[in-house]
Write a structure and sequence with these properties.
There is one protein chain. By secondary structure, the chain is mainly alpha-helical. It has a single domain (about 1-105), classed as Domain of unknown function DUF1476 (Major Prion Protein), CATH 1.10.790.20. Helix content is about 85%, strand content about 0%. It has helices at about 1-40, 45-60, 65-80, 85-105. It starts with a helix and ends with a helix. It holds the Pfam family ATPaseInh_sub_z.
């Protein structure tokens, strides 16, 4: 029975590590996405940092990516940038790849 318990604990530990890594990748992706949008809006470096943090915070409003997409589309449109949801989703996908790459390099 001990080996079964050990396996169960190992699977639980792996699941916890995987979940933590997924959370970190998404947070990094959102920060990169905030930087992408800030560059399009012509924000200063200080404003870019604050905006990227705001995008990360926006992801905690609801499950999924819709809250982040809504924020970016709304902010870009309010800044007079011609954009649509499809462009933001493409940027989201591109930044996800970059975030994963960065996290793997950091290991």
């Amino acid at each position: 029975m001990t080996s079964f318990d050990d396996r169960e604990k190992a699977f639980e530990a792996k699941y916890a590590r995987d979940e933590e890594m997924a959370f970190r990748v998404i947070a990094r992706r959102n920060r990169l996405l905030g930087g992408w949008a800030a560059a399009r809006m012509g924000l200063t470096p200080e404003e870019t940092d604050a905006y990227a943090k705001a995008v990360v915070q926006a992801d905690f409003e609801e499950a999924g990516d819709e809250d982040v997409i809504r924020k970016l589309v709304g902010d870009l449109t309010a800044a007079g940038i011609d954009t649509d949801e499809a462009e933001v989703r493409r940027a989201l996908d591109e930044q996800m790849v970059e975030a994963r790459r960065q996290m793997l390099e950091a290991r």
